[in-house]
Amino acid sequence: MLVCNRKGKTLYVYDVQLKLPWEGHITKVDIEEKEDNEEKKDKKKNKITAKGTIYVDDISNDEEKYRISIKSDSESSENQEIFKEMKKNAISVVESVIDDVILSMKGIKAVKEQTVGISPQVRHAICQLLFQVPPTQLYKALVEPQHDQFKSFFEFFEGPVLGEHVELVIDTKIVQKWRLASWPDNHFSQVDISISIDNTGTQLSLIHREIPYSHYDNTRIQWESFWNKIKSLYGFNYTIIKWF
């Protein structure tokens, strides 16, 4: 793993290249007219198969954290037709797989929720922050905010959040189940917040699992706005150490 700094942000570039074989098929129908002006026509079905490889390089915790290239084994016109469909549809699937690979390398196992209907493709967000405030004060502000403007943790977010605390360990751990109102019906995510202290200050680790892929960027913006409100309302200075 290579660690570097870009514009004040620490980047972790993993020395990993993914090679994913792909294969696609199309069936073409050729119509042949019979001789002697007969009205009947013969139909010939030709199955065309194309193969290739998807390469993923430059995996890191940056926003643009992958370099994905899709290659075809053949440059024939029929293969290029399949190849175009692969390029159009494969990227979102591959990105979801890579997110799980990164979490796996970090020793984090994704939590799968049972939902009604088809589950959306999901991503996971990991954030580590350093606060200059005792753990007790930070924990209390998150679990029992005492402020005229906000009466609940979930009211700090810009969009309506439906959620609940499912596990609380005083001063050290918060587990939540929640969803934004704009998310697909019946899909809930899980938030794990752990709080600890060392000689640099109070460390907060946030793992937000099962975010619908199309809502990932907005959810991340919501969290950044959340921490800014905590700072503004309570005077808790903080530094974002890592965003994955």
Question: Can you offer a commentary on this structure?
Answer:
By secondary structure, the chain is of the alpha+beta class. 23% of the residues lie in helices and 44% in strands. It has three helices and twelve strands, in the order E-E-E-E-E-E-H-E-H-E-E-E-E-H-E. The strands form three sheets. Strands 8-9-10-11-7-12 form a six-stranded antiparallel β-sheet, sandwiched between helices. Strands 1-2-5 form a three-stranded antiparallel β-sheet, with no helix packed on it. A three-stranded antiparallel β-sheet has the order 3-4-6. A hairpin with a 2-residue loop joins strand 1 and strand 2 (9-14). The protein is elongated, with a radius of gyration of 25 Å. The two termini are 15 Å apart.
